[in-house]
Amino acid sequence: MLEKLRHHPAWPASLIAVFLIVYITYDRRWTYSPIIEWDVCNYYSYIKGVLFEGDPYLRVWNVDSNRMEIFTYKGEKSEKMTGGLAFLYLPGIIVSHIFASISNDFSPDGLSLPYRIGLQYNVLIYLWIGFFVLYKVVFRLVKNHLATFLSLLTVFFGTNLFYYAAVENAMSHAYTFSLFSLWLYLSMKWIDRPSQKLSVAMGLIAGLIIWVRPVNLVLLPAGLVFLFANQGPKKVSMVMRKLPMHSMVVVLMVIIVLIPQMYYWYTTEGRLLVYSYGEEKFFFNDPKIIDGLLSWRKGWLVYSPALVAVIPGFTWLWHRYPGASLVFSTVVLSFLYITFSWWCWWYGGGYSQRSLIDMLPLLAVPMAATWYLLFRFITPIRLGLIFVLLALISLNVFHIWQYKNYLIHFDSNTRKSYWLHFLKTQHVHGWWEALEAPDYEAAMKGHR
Questions:
Q1: How far apart are the first and last CA of the chain?
Q2: Residue 144 burial (C-beta neighbours within 10 Å; 0-12, 13-18, 19+)
Q3: pTM > 0.85
Q4: Complete DSSP assignment for 88-112
Q5: Buried b (16+ CB within 10 A) or exposed e, 84-105
């Protein structure tokens, strides 16, 4: 009993959730940020426009000259972003609306302070569920509780997920991290014992994943990892026979989940399917994968260097689960290719490569394998390697502190600007001059 309690998957999920509650409460971001700003405005327009005003053309935006002021205006077409994230906002919005409705100090209009505070805390339940099920997924493949526990903490504190869970957590990335974790868990359970109920649940989660961020459709085949992880030929044959019929159930549920979005498009533009990004597009002949991972502007491995630890873990997984590792590498490479083929490969303003947070649940597995490998070294080497990994995790945390304090730029970093502020806590002369702003107009035409 005590052993099961000690290794319960609720531990890392609860530890991270408690940390976030303390951090969000201490930071009080709603006192210096409108919370509903930039991309969040696109998602929140569904809440304010459709839910509160019954107007699908109503838009929300924040004022450049006064960050705390939010205004509404009329759009002519459908909202640029899909509405899946607005749906996930609903628990926090409902609680906030009840409070605002019974309070004499706040207007129940969807934009007053309670709603902004509600958005900051809303992500917590999703992240708790995400880390809870991810523990089970990672442990199934690595079979070591301590390595699994440390992997989840590394994925949180050692990457930009920390920032998008604790600070700009009304963005989509912490939500999609949790949804993809749940998808992997349901895939694992379905392969263990296929059932219609699990197929329905998988379809609902897949629908939400696509509704929040359609490009994440490419991540869904990762669920097949468990089919090739030490499954016997009879088991594989049985699952493959059932896969077509259950896939139809999944697809049907995905369509059902997407009906509100299709109805919204039909209402605003008279079509069930709409490409709402205008001239923005992918350049599949010129993917910027190296820039996305290693550039000074937004390189994921530059600002979250602990991620290099997945490399030795992946080699271990390849030897242990070659079939599963092939699925793993195919999904990761496909996601990198599509993500960095987008015209704006740095994805506007933000800390590091926020679009890659969505695939972190998959990387948690080789991260756990790396921790497991560390335990097998003799003590002096083991301690040295653990110190290096902890230093890389700490560097990510410090980078986040720098970014919050305007010591790392949101889109214009260069090699010179990075090293001028490396481990610095105050601005250094020449830093502003060392920045190099990207040319958004040229990038949209393919000159990236």
A1: 57
A2: middle
A3: yes
A4: HHHHHHHHHHHHHHH-SSS--SSSS
A5: bbbbbbeebbebbbebbeeeee
Determine how many CB atoms are found less than 10 A away from the CB of residue 446.
11
The tens-digit pLDDT sequence of the chain (448 residues) is 556 667 889 999 999 999 999 999 999 999 999 999 999 999 999 999 999 999 999 999 987 666 778 889 999 899 999 999 999 999 999 999 999 999 999 999 999 999 999 999 999 999 999 999 999 999 999 999 999 999 999 999 999 999 999 999 999 999 999 999 999 999 999 999 999 999 999 999 999 999 999 999 999 999 999 988 867 788 888 889 999 999 999 999 999 999 999 999 999 999 999 999 999 999 999 999 999 999 999 999 999 999 999 999 999 999 999 999 999 999 999 999 999 999 999 999 999 999 999 999 999 999 999 999 999 998 899 999 999 999 999 999 999 999 999 999 999 999 999 999 999 999 999 999 999 999 999 999 999 9
Please name the residue that has the structure tokens 């089919």.
Answer: 227
Residue 59 pairs with which residues in a beta bridge?
73
CA–CA gap between residue 141 and residue 187 (Å, rounded): 13
For the chain, how many residues are written?
448
